[in-house]
Specification:
Distance between the termini: 40 Å
Helix content: under 10%
Order of helices and strands: EEEEEEEEEEE
Shape: globular
Radius of gyration: 13 Å
Length: 114
């Protein structure tokens, strides 16, 4: 059974940084593309970033390009989302997701507010 557990969310001031982590189990992590999604109150869940398994190539939503960085550590079965220059509109619940297994984590709340 695939399990994804996110951590690292919290309250941060505008312009600040946070690093989210997602620990995966129950899958061959090194061969699995991983994504981060987010869902703000009253809005649909949106794709934030994806990292491919072998090449490590990553893609980003236009709204986070240049501010967010997705990375992975295959030895630790983990994927990360480094978020810099945070804005109030980045406030959302952030979810880890693997499209191969259609599995979601429980989410971690990120709140950007002064």
């Amino acid at each position: 059974q695939v399990q994804l557990v996110e951590s690292g969310g919290g309250l941060v001031q505008p312009g600040g940084s946070l690093r989210l982590s997602c620990a995966a189990s129950g899958l061959t992590f090194s061969r699995t593309a991983m994504s981060w999604y987010r869902q703000a109150p009253g809005k649909e869940r949106e794709l934030v970033a994806t990292i491919i398994s072998i090449s490590g190539i990553s893609t980003y939503a236009d709204s986070v390009k240049g501010r967010f960085t997705i990375s992975r550590d295959n030895a630790k079965n983990s994927v990360f989302l480094q978020m810099n220059s945070l804005k109030p509109e980045d406030t959302a619940v952030y979810y880890c997701y693997t499209p191969r297994f259609n599995a979601w984590g429980q989410g971690t709340q990120v709140t950007v507010s002064s």
